[in-house]
Amino acid sequence: MTYTDYATGAPVSDSKAPSGPVEERWDKRRFEAKLVNPANRRKHTVIVVGTGLAGGSAGATLAEQGYHVVQFCYQDSPRRAHSIAAQGGINAAKNYRNDGDSVHRLFYDTVKGGDFRARESNVHRLAQISVEIIDQCVAQGVPFAREYGGLLDTRSFGGVQVSRTFYARGQTGQQLLLGAYQALSRQIAAGNVEMHPRTEMLDLIVVDGRARGIVARDLITGRIDTHFADAVVLASGGYGNVFYLSTNAMNSNATAVWRAHRRGAYFANPCFTQIHPTCIPRTGDHQSKLTLMSESLRNDGRIWVPKAQGDTRPPSQIPEDERDYYLERIYPSFGNLVPRDIASRAAKNVCDEGRGVGPGGQGVYLDFADAIERMGRAAVEARYGNLFDMYHRITDEDPYEVPMRIYPAVHYTMGGLWVDYDLQTTVPGLFAIGEANFSDHGANRLGASALMQGLADGYFVLPATINDYLARNPHQEAVTAEHPAVQEVLAETEDRINLLLAVDGDRTPDSFHRELGELMWEFCGMARTDSGLRKALERIPQIRDEFWRRIKVPGTGEEFNQSLEKANRIVDYLELAELMCLDALHRTESCGGHFREESQTPDGEAARRDEEFAYAAAWEFSGTGEAPVLHKEDLVFEYVHPTQRSYA
Amino acid sequence: MKLTLRVWRQKNAGAEGAMSTYEVDDISPDMSFLEMLDVLNEQLILSGEEPVAFDHDCREGICGACSLVINGDAHGPERTTTCQLHMRSFRDGDTIDIEPWRASAFPVIKDLVVDRSAFDRIIQAGGYVTAPTGSAPEAHATPVPKADADFAFEHAECIGCGACVAACPNGAAMLFTSAKVNHLNVLPQGAPERETRVLDMVAQMDAEGFGGCTLAGECATACPKGIPLVSITGMNKEWLRATRKAGKR
Amino acid sequence: MARTVWDSSVGKKTVMAVSGVIMLLYLVAHVIGNLKIFFGAGEFNHYAHWLRTVGEPFMHYEWTLWLVRIVLVAAVVAHATSAYQLSRRDIKARPSKYVHKKPRASYATRTMRWGGIILGLFIVWHILDLTTGTVHSGGFQEGHPYQNVVDTFSTWYGNVVYIVAMLALGLHIRHGFWSAAQTLGVGSRTRDRALKTVADVLALLLTAGFIAVPVGVMTGVVS
User: Domain residues for A440?
Assistant: First the structure.
């Protein structure tokens, strides 16, 4: 049986989601969830993997509630998780602007923005909680931008028509993360959180069908150890680094989620990746990562390419009537502010037509000349100064003088571990929060929603729902390292590490990663086709095979060994990539970040096929290189009725 | 570009270290400094040597992981992080010295990687506002003057990279500590813990074995986020205020 | 509270700043007194005598002077002890140097430690020379400070020692005054220029004022 001949298993359903009016479901669930007696919480250990917005906030909050938290991050400090790089802002339905915003509108925008592939109940809960997040962060001392009257400032962001995005200059993620990190630090100091920095989760321990711990490697000593708990929370982020080049941090990886998947957690919608339209184009083969320029730039910058193909004149010499402001032309009512997926694809299209600019023709202009003329340089500087400086530093071009060049890049993965309304995976006791799960963004994430979701999950949702699991499983038998199931996982992990070191081939980890990334970008990137995906599915097992024959990892496992860390992550990318391609192949519709060339409207827009694909695809692992089993979760839309998105 | 690199190599915390010399060729001026090191490491792996260990993650200047002293300057010749330093800042044929952060509170783990957990412990000592989840009042209940909010933000920008300590002739962590003290102490939300925060954080800073401040100003010059030297003055003021108040109690 | 201050690196810096300011105030008075030498032996010796009678009849003869001396000794001891302890902490905090060395900070900043040691030694010599007369070059005459000063600056080494020390003093004050302001928390972004200017002017005036005396002797203006 080949990988593409997958079987379809029993549908999966979100058994925890309450029924009734969508506004009341979260209250209802919180009321129905069992509670753990405060005095007993101390006796429960919860493992949290990752210290980003979701993990940091969850660790702090669970510890505040009285649980014993054992937390891990691969970074040298919990403060460095990649949430820190989020620039733009965080949405909240505060309606401080009195511009018609409401919880319901944020809910509506998010379901629509996700192209009708997210659960209504989850999204509504997210919109409700958004309001509390802002309160929480302000109380922690997060220095949001403020107006002269001392009240919070907001801006409009990423294709919505209300001003609901709270921000801290271009460093909102940093400030929110530091807020969570500081709350976590307080709990570490109080002894409620046992923090393990520079420690990477390598596998999940499942005993009697329940998640009971993890296998982790101390990155300094190389020691592989087991850690046990009553529940495990994965907050390990997204898997965008499958593409090698992405806006993710270099060490962001999929190992935690992929290992959990291998141990029984379903992986949902892996093909839903977000390609962000405003990134700095790559300059050459040496490129190690891509840098995002905040989407807020599109509020004032105008995107264009030359009308003629192969026009190599410098932008200043291209007269106005020979420029194509293609977003404004194709989408007159939203113009440059169309959602990310649309803006990205449009950029790809004009570049494919041979009208791209810059080295290799892989770029479009983002021009601030009009904005500078209209508002003055000082106003532009006040709004975007730090972004302009960053661009200038990286490209050595002054965006006040020359239009910026931008090109789409992999930015966020909407897919992730399948979770129910309680954020619990299909492995009891294993929870996934933040970007690591699939739950709230559907097929496309709106700008400034990732921070909202990460913090909603960590501060409010998980701390409420995990109680229910722990209360229903109060006296779990203690697990020790001697348990056969534990021994087995530990041995597997050690074998894998030893094998990586033993191959002693002639190719570096990066060379494999780069090869896989290029393949994925070409065939599973912005536009996907049946033939391309099949080609990728044929190629990936070959790369995997070559990897295990030719990988070279210097050094030993008993020391600080960054090559080993990398190689071990690539092992998992090489399997996850295959699942992403299969998911993309099976979904023969276009929706959100997933664009199938076979499924488009006559004028080239994405054509969704709700009759066939209004479901989340949750995949069950059956073995490396073996066809996984598809479980469908039907999506029901009672409040926001699916329409073909139109931004024209 | 062709470059000669002299890199600090140290097997582990206990081992003796020394500078080793390497040549790299075909370096593009558009490469970041870390991408240049990637090239070196690919070269080393293929020739059977151990690659140079260095901390890095976001490579966009915000996570604070990267930490190299390049030709005697923390983060190199430009005012930015090492990951945002580009090879166009160097010339063909240059010899570049690359060393780890040096401070007894930042022991070397391997090669160019150091242990900065002392910073985490300074934050744990008081660099937070006690506001358990769920207890927050409505965000607009307390307006914060824009000037104060901006002041807080400018200090909150610190990325905790440790360049201030690396650059300080005394290995002091005053700029790092003061950035957090100033950020939280100016805000109404941080006011109730204003005194304990500064006293506890300074005490922890001393306990970690960082040096004292002689106001040499090297920290502020090295800071990739431009935290000003006067931030330290602000913390001194807070500390004196807190000490006076504690004395009265 | 005293314990908190002394145990903390910031507290010790405060001790340094306060004792430094006390010594600085003293030096301002000292230099003004010194300049009287240009108005002849009578005025200078009279001034020196007056120093012993300040505060009479409330204070007994020399009581005020001794009070000042005690405060000064306390300031010097506090300043030096904290400097010593802080320096030890600083050196311990940065045990290994960078291989690639770069000139760092300003000259005044870099010379604070050595400058301080030079000044400490100078003070000892200065007292033995002109207060007790123990190491005085000519025949030291109690109550005739004018002649004693002229004697000291009639030797080449007297001039060298004094002038070098005063230059060190200028540098020390230049960084020390501004630094003390930062330690005491009175510096700010807007005040920084003003503080630096005051530091420069103070350093310059004190150095020039003190050096004027040996120069005066050497050139024969004072004899």
Answer: 34-275+412-472
Domain-wise residue ranges, chain C: 2-95+105-219
| pTM reported for the whole predicted model | 0.96
Concatenate the DSSP letters of all residues of chain C into one string: -HHHHHHSHHHHHHHHHHHHHHHHHHHHHHHHHHGGGGG-HHHHHHHHHHHHHTTTTTSPTTHHHHHHHHHHHHHHHHHHHHHHHHHHHHHHHS-S--SS----S-HHHHTHHHHHHHHHHHHHHHHHHHTS-TT-SS---TT-HHHHHHHHTTSHHHHHHHHHHHHHHHHHHHHHHHHHHHHTT---TTTHHHHHHHHHHHHHHHHHHHHHHHHHHHHTS--
Give the domains, in start order, of chain B with CATH numbers.
3-110 (3.10.20.30), 117-248 (1.10.1060.10)
Beta carbons of C185 and B240 less than 8 Å apart = yes
Chain C positions in Cβ-Cβ contact with residue B218 (cut-off 8 Å): 104-105
User: Among this protein's residues, is A345 annotated catalytic?
Assistant: no
Contact yes or no for A292 and B134 at CB 8 A: no
The CATH number linked to A498 is 1.20.58.100
- Chain A hits for B142, CB-CB cut-off 8 Å, are 138
From chain C residues 45-84, the ones with a CB under 8 A of any chain B CB are none
Q: What is the CATH number of domain C2-95+105-219?
A: 1.20.1300.10
Q: Which residues of B touch A291 (CB under 8 A)?
A: 59-60
Q: How far is C118 from chain B (nearest CA, A)?
A: 18
Looking at beta carbons, which residues of chain B come within 8 Å of C175? Answer: 215
Digit-by-digit pLDDT tens for chain B (249 residues) are: 999 999 999 999 999 999 999 999 999 999 999 999 999 999 999 999 999 999 999 999 999 999 999 999 999 999 999 999 999 999 999 999 999 999 999 999 999 999 999 999 999 999 999 999 999 999 999 999 999 999 999 999 999 999 999 999 999 999 999 999 999 999 999 999 999 999 999 999 999 999 999 999 999 999 999 999 999 999 999 999 999 998 877
Whether C3 and chain B come into contact, CB under 8 Å, resolves to no
Which of C9, C98, C182 lies at the smallest CB-CB distance from B69? C98
Of A41, A119, A298, A340, the catalytic one is A340
